[in-house]
């Protein structure tokens, strides 16, 4: 599963819950990346015969790099950097230009990932082939001077076919997966949290699709529908998401009393249940289980 980056959850929550909120530049940047990764995963799914890891941040000696999507087969390890660029770019080496605008070439960051992966694999002493690629997932993307390891949308199918012809994973690959998860160290993008006052933030459960206030009602029914967009979720699920939002807004672990205040006393029993099921508890403070 690709987890939505926390900065996106935070800003989307502020957008719903404050009278006025303008998304940051970081938000758009992160959203591009997230959308591209989602698109790659949805258009090119993979069976459970193989292992997939998303947004894994690895550190090995001086190398610190992120792999957007890693696929492990019985024969190879694929490390993909995924980009969501649109349209034609003019390649000037360190800079890529499009319609008068220029951006830093993504190849530098990609090379860091590739070098990091190779060093790590060497250290692990694996016999798997290492395949690193930078995938441009938007069909409209092109570049006048192509560089090694660039994959256009049209060519993704060829890579996926290769993957699907490889041996399925076994015990060794499961151990590799565990190792990667162990050494995963998230790179925090959000050094700058948006500044806001919790007093101005609308509490309670708001629909994450349309922003409408959700009234869980008094009945015993399991499910509640948004009265505007008709999104249907279990009461537990509505509460879980609202509490996760609350934790991200206050940026720390949360306690039962404030959780009840956020959701409403009428649902205190469900709040307790959700906290116990979906959060890790330390000394009465709850932190969302990711
Ligand atoms: Zn809704």
UniProtKB/TrEMBL annotation:
<dbReference type="Pfam" id="PF08378">
    <property type="entry name" value="NERD"/>
</dbReference>
<protein>
    <submittedName>
        <fullName>NERD domain-containing protein</fullName>
    </submittedName>
</protein>
<feature type="domain" description="NERD">
    <location>
        <begin position="33"/>
        <end position="136"/>
    </location>
</feature>
<dbReference type="InterPro" id="IPR011528">
    <property type="entry name" value="NERD"/>
</dbReference>
